[in-house]
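Quick one: structure for this chain?
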Amino acid sequence: MEIGLIKEINKDYIEAVRCYESEIKNNKVSILPDNYINLAFLYWSFAFELFEFNIPNNIKDDYSIIGGNSYQNILDLGLSKYPNNTELHFWKEYFQHIIYGKEFSENDCKQLIEKYGDDESDVPYFFLYLFNKEKYEEKRNKLIDVCNKQPTAKNIYIKSIIA
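Got it. Here's what it folds into:
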């Protein structure tokens, strides 16, 4: 398990950010899409989840500004390396929907999955589950298992929505 991920699971979020940033900056060959996703999610949380994330985790206000200036760039960097990664595309759309109210419908999410596939991640199904609980219950259950096994900030967020 990578150091950034371990730090994040242990809720040492600032150190996790430093580790993810270092891995991305040093352009390690083994860097995974998850590093970009987890870093972007932490930055987004710092910027937009003050009461839900920053206060309970003692994240200083400076990180809200850093997060707001950085989350989109990290997603774009990840997409430049992994242009067909469904989850990177999903978070890019989802964040715009949550923050700015950009239209992102059930159909839009399905089209993302159709275009890029769902072989690597079931994450978009947490959003689809909100539209049709019966249809996506199996995917939801798989996601909850993943969230329980690897409680990153992203997975804690997902679980809080679908559990």
